[in-house]
UniProtKB/TrEMBL annotation:
The keyword Oxidoreductase does not apply. It holds the Pfam family GDP_Man_Dehyd. This is UDP-glucuronate decarboxylase. Its main location: cytoplasm. Keywords: Cytoplasm, Decarboxylase, Golgi apparatus, Lyase, Membrane, NAD, Signal-anchor, Transmembrane, Transmembrane helix. It comes from Candidatus Magasanikbacteria bacterium RIFCSPLOWO2_12_FULL_43_12. It is a single-pass type II membrane protein. The keyword Endoplasmic reticulum does not apply. Residues 5-316 form the NAD(P)-binding domain. Its EC number is 4.1.1.35.
Length: 328
């Protein structure tokens, strides 16, 4: 049984990770400032003796002392064994809302979490992103590709922030011999996505279920590859538990690529919605193509995604219907 800290644990991916690690018999400390996350995502865990929630912004130093880390009926050490660092707003409208705070979360916040992990002798995993490749000129993207990021554009607070976070991880590894893991996560979707974070899967599902226009930005020919959250969680845990010489970065995502128009059509078919597709301006610096090369994850972690877009969307749409009180 490990003691595991998950920052951003009340968010979409983080709450699924809390569930998974608790089910595997671990103790989980979830730290989240609830900026984009919600207690709704973790309230089912509040009665679990192996779960603790701390409301905290990682930009501020975090001290986890014996009182905070004591769990009922245990005499074990109060050290954290593993840290998953997921705390960062992930959707463009949220990370651009306070761009400077997004940069702080990925620099000051990351330094705070690396320092905490170092003090505890814990292994630490960074939730990095395909956005480190920017608007890629290499396709599909391998981990060796160094990216094409506009350092002064509206997405830069996130893209450059995450790039700097990776740099910090590797510097702490070189300077202090820390055990680090860097996952480059590609577009992930599934139950518990926020209705209002503006990301494409949640926008299209909400619009289709409400019978509103489906807002396609640009002509809809830009591509993304969508990974179902359960697949991603297994990849993250495999990476965290891998041999200590495996630092990453490792791409985690589904290599099946779809245009945004194809995604809209698929959601319309599954929901049976009569919504119309309408075309809006493409946001600045919106990447034209994105698809992971996951050969490294296959070789080093024996991981590949198993859930295809159709079945993943069906599960996600069911969850949205329940949360929206949608009647068929
Ligand atoms: P999310 O917005 O649902 O989750 C982020 C969580 O972090 C939220 O609960 C939020 O309240 C919390 N948070 C934000 N800033 C914080 C801070 N300063 N201190 C403490 N908590 C803070 O997004 P998500 O999709 O679950 O993403 C989780 C992580 O995975 C993020 O780091 C994101 O960059 C990364 N990621 C996600 C995707 C994706 O497609 N979902 C793709 C690439 C990378
Ligand atoms: N997108 C869209 N309509 C929407 C929301 C997003 O066409 O209502 C597009 C967006 O311009 C981008 C793609 O869908 O090309 C994925 O956007 P998202 O914000 O989900 O993720 P990211 O751009 O970070 O991959």
């Amino acid at each position: 049984m490990k003691k595991i800290l998950i920052t951003g644990g009340a968010g979409f991916i983080g709450s699924h990770l809390c569930d998974y690690l608790l089910k595997k018999g671990n103790r989980v400390v979830c730290v989240d400032d609830l900026f984009t996350g919600s207690e709704d995502n973790i309230k089912h865990l509040f009665g679990n003796a192996n779960f603790k929630f701390i409301k905290h912004d990682i930009v501020e130093p975090l001290f986890l002392d014996d009182t905070v880390l004591s769990f009922p009926r245990t005499r074990e050490s109060s050290k954290i064994d593993q840290v998953y660092n997921l705390a960062c707003p992930a959707s463009p409208i949220h990370y651009q809302h306070n761009a400077v705070h997004t940069i702080k979360a990925n620099t000051v916040g990351v330094i705070n979490m690396l320092g905490l992990a170092r003090k505890h002798g814990a292994r630490i995993l960074q939730a990095s992103t395909s956005e480190v490749y920017g608007d890629p000129e290499v396709h599909p993207q391998t981990e060796e590709y160094r990216g094409n990021v506009n350092p002064i554009g509206p997405r830069a607070c996130y893209d450059e922030g995450k790039r700097c976070a990776e740099t910090l991880f590797f510097d702490y590894h070189r300077m202090h011999g820390m055990e680090i893991k860097v996952a480059r996560i590609f577009n992930t979707y599934g139950p518990r996505m926020s209705f209002v974070d503006g990301r494409v899967v949640s926008n299209f599902i909400v619009q289709a279920l409400k019978g509103e226009d489906i807002t396609i930005y640009g002509d809809g020919s830009q591509t993304r590859s969508f990974c179902y959250v359960d697949d991603l969680i297994i990849g993250l845990v495999k990476l965290m538990d891998s041999d200590k010489n495996i630092t990453g970065p490792i791409n985690l995502g589904n290599p099946k690529e779809f245009t945004i128009k194809e995604l809209a059509e698929e959601i319309l078919v599954i929901t049976g919605s009569k919504s119309k597709m309408v075309y809006r301006n493409l946001p600045e610096d919106d990447p034209k193509q994105r698809c992971p090369d996951i050969a490294k994850a296959g070789k080093k972690l024996d991981w590949s995604p198993k859930i295809n877009l159709d079945s993943g969307l069906r599960k996600t749409i069911e969850d949205f219907k329940i949360r929206m009180n949608y009647a068929d």
